[in-house]
Automatic annotation (TrEMBL):
Belongs to the porin LamB (TC 1.B.3) family. GO terms for cellular component: cell outer membrane; pore complex. It is found in: Cell outer membrane. GO terms for biological process: monoatomic ion transport; polysaccharide transport. This is Maltoporin. InterPro entries: G_neg_Bact_CarbUptk_Porin (IPR050286), Porin_LamB (IPR003192), Porin_LamB_sf (IPR036998). Pfam families: LamB. Its main location: membrane. Residues 1-23 form the signal peptide. It is a multi-pass membrane protein. It comes from Chitinimonas taiwanensis DSM 18899. Keywords: Cell outer membrane, Ion transport, Membrane, Porin, Signal, Transmembrane, Transmembrane beta strand, Transport.
Length: 422
């Protein structure tokens, strides 16, 4: 009873805080993203997804997780002289199917495992973004400043869920300062809640970005992402632990975007290299979107080369795939997605995975991007012996894959998924 009373009081307090804001529709923006669904595998049991560990996956009918990200943006102040100021707050939920929340091993003072905490089956709320930002400040070249915790520098290929750039973190910086036709951004990024619990060690990064550099006209532009990360440390005066030396990492990403270069769609060509004393990772990526009649299409191919500088051995990753999304009539659509992944490590045979999904959908509009949508899908995948180790080690669904498919070389899942962004 006391717990229910506390929840009621909290809800009333939240309603009291929000209601004055809702009275002015321009003060509060509500955006977000969510996906959730159910599924089974045809051998028996729950849905199993087909993702090789370390390789981006083809998403349609192949997402074994919940993602819920409601985002509230309060427009706090606006003036020609001081710019526009916003407060962004995003409580979020993420969980892979079959995983408990906040569980794990229980250890004694000596580090010995004495039990296991299974956690909860319910979805647990986290706070993915909480930050203050500004824009259109004349004294900052019509740019702004920001500080807090946020999604930052995200560049994503949608249908295979590969983030070409992703630097989500705590931090502060300036962004979108006009430099001619281009825009400049700089941020100091760090996350004090990850890694060590000691104040003597802290990873950090300097992140630079120049976007919208004109190339071949108004519909063609280049974006440059550059970063330098390292470790700040000192001798621990309590334990006597020595100062730890970091391995500084440098990254450079170049992304050229065009509209109308091929048909009526968009073209993205990307290159990225990241290096430190231990490893050098590089990739090239190509994405082309377009439409033909009632069908929208999306094609992606990538090549990665990850090199261990200590052993001088490399792993090469090649991915190729695409999706079509066809309007049938009214709210009904038909989707198809085919993707192939090839991973070749030096001295080993290549691992191959091919995944095909066919789906029908009921959507809130005629266009391929119309949301909300509910999809009903069947996903079939085939793989070779070399791919089993990658599939079984995927943190999202590896143990589920191993327990269901074992030594098999193919598998099928059937299910439904809801998705929306707003």
């Amino acid at each position: 009873m006391q717990s229910k009373l506390k929840h009621c009081l909290a809800a009333l307090m939240l309603a009291g805080l929000v209601s004055p804001v809702l009275a002015d529709d321009s003060s509060l923006e509500f955006h977000g993203y969510m996906r959730a669904g159910v599924g089974v595998n045809t051998k028996g049991g729950g849905q199993v997804c087909f993702n090789m560990n370390g390789v981006s996956h083809w998403r349609l009918g192949n997402e074994c997780d919940y993602t819920i990200e409601p985002t509230f943006i309060y427009n706090a102040a606006k003036s020609p002289e001081y710019g526009n100021w916003k407060i962004t707050f995003m409580p979020s939920v993420y969980r892979a199917y079959g995983q408990g929340e906040l569980g794990g091993e229980v250890k004694d003072a000596g580090g010995n495992v004495v039990g296991n905490f299974n956690g909860t089956d319910e979805l647990v709320t986290r706070f993915g973004q909480v930050f203050i930002s500004s824009e259109k400040i004349p004294a900052l070249g019509n740019g702004g400043v920001w500080a807090g915790r946020r999604f930052y520098d995200r560049v994503q290929l949608g249908i295979n869920d590969h983030f070409l750039e992703n630097h989500d973190s705590d931090g502060a910086g300036i962004e979108n300062v006009e430099v001619g036709a281009a825009k400049f951004s700089y941020a100091f990024l760090m996350n004090p809640r990850t890694g060590t619990t000691s104040a003597n060690e802290q990873a950090y990064e300097h992140a630079f970005r120049i976007t919208d550099i004109p190339t071949f006209g108004k519909d063609h532009a280049l974006d440059i992402y550059f970063g330098r990360s390292d470790l700040s440390s000192s001798e621990n005066q309590t334990t006597g632990a020595a100062k730890k030396e970091g391995d500084a990492t440098t990254r450079l990403g170049l992304y050229h975007k065009s509209n109308g270069l091929i048909g009526n769609g968009g073209t993205l060509i990307g290159f990225r290299v990241q290096t430190n004393d231990a490893a050098r990772n590089a990739f090239v990526a190509f994405q082309q979107t377009g439409s033909f009649g009632a069908t929208a299409w999306d094609f992606i191919t990538e090549f990665h080369r990850n090199t261990d500088k200590v052993t001088d051995k490399s792993t090469k990753i090649f991915t190729l795939g695409g999706r079509t999304d066809t309007h049938i009539a009214g709210p009904f659509r038909f989707l198809a997605e085919l993707g192939h992944d090839n991973v070749k490590a030096d001295g080993q045979d290549a691992a191959n995975l091919t995944k095909l999904t066919l789906a029908t959908a009921v959507s809130a509009g005629k266009d391929a991007g119309s949301r909300p949508t509910v999809r009903f899908f069947v996903t079939h995948a085939r793989w070779n012996d070399e791919a089993k180790a990658y599939l079984s080690s995927s943190w999202v669904s590896g143990p589920r894959f191993a327990s269901v498919f074992g030594n098999a070389k193919s598998g099928t899942s059937v299910g439904a998924q809801a998705e929306a962004w707003w």
